[in-house]
Amino acid sequence: MEDYLVKALAYNGQVRAYAVSTTETVGEAQRRHYTWPTASAALGRSMTAGVMLGAMLKGEEKLTIKIEGGGPLGVILVDANANGEVRGYVANPQTHFDLNEHGKLDVRRAVGTDGMLSIVKDIGLRDYFTGQVPLVSGELGEDFTYYLVTSEQVPSSVGVGVLVNPDNTILAAGGFIIQLMPGVEDETITAIEERLRTITPISKMIQQGLTPEQILDEVLGEGNVRLLEKLPVQFKCQCSRERISNTLVSLGKDEIQDMIDTDGQAEAHCHFCNETYHFTKEDLESLIKEL
Ligand SMILES: [Zn+2]
């Protein structure tokens, strides 16, 4: 089934909510980067949060998430936009540890807890918004919650989960974000806090195959949720052979000639999707002719 995201309001507009299925999206990242299970969970949780944060943007706005926790996984980078497109990678994709004491993938150990989560939002016209918080958990869901509460000052709760099959492929992935709107009533806050204490953990909801709509019903209570919009979600990189060609052309004739003379070819690698673009001597010569 294709991944999608739903946007919703709850409790008569006092609560804004997002939920998403990302099984295929995280699966594509796993296949492209050959991530091992703990790395898949860390990257998948980050991409799942990322695509929901992206869905909060408008038009051509986009954001980049960078998580550097000092752990063996190294940096996690995720890009997302308002159209449900997300891409991401981790510095050391072949990172895996034994399950933690709760029988879960030990994301905290892979990510580390000594570092920062930062988000840069490109809101157009060379205007950027940057927020940064220290990592408080390393399990990432709590870290995104802390980011939203502290840096964006929106009372929020983030739940993200990724389950991995024994052959390293992705069994299921998804998550939710709920946010309290200004002017929210005390009894709504109490009701939501009570629900969050007692709901099925997100990893369990994912395992049970709950749809984004069902996740919101579970988190906010059936009958409380008003769906606003549904958005398809996918792993999509912004790189292309044409873009790389343009970059090469922008280097100028001498630089390209130097590549021909030195290596007789050129190669460009995209970290985000792990694609390598190869340019032969003839390709490079035709680029020079274009100039
Ligand atoms: Zn790419």
Automatic annotation (TrEMBL):
Entry-linked SUPFAM superfamilies: Hsp33 domain (SSF64397), HSP33 redox switch-like (SSF118352)
Subcellular location, record wording: Cytoplasm
Processing after translation: Under oxidizing conditions two disulfide bonds are formed involving the reactive cysteines. Under reducing conditions zinc is bound to the reactive cysteines and the protein is inactive.
Disulfide bonds: 237-239, 270-273
Keyword field contains Transmembrane: no
Main location: cytoplasm
InterPro entries from the UniProt entry: Heat_shock_Hsp33, Heat_shock_Hsp33_C, Heat_shock_Hsp33_N
Pfam annotation, one family: HSP33
Keywords assigned: Chaperone, Cytoplasm, Disulfide bond, Redox-active center, Zinc
Family the entry assigns: Belongs to the HSP33 family.
Function: Redox regulated molecular chaperone. Protects both thermally unfolding and oxidatively damaged proteins from irreversible aggregation. Plays an important role in the bacterial defense system toward oxidative stress.
NCBIfam families, A to Z: PRK00114.1 (NF001033)
Protein name: 33 kDa chaperonin
Species the sequence originates in: Peribacillus huizhouensis
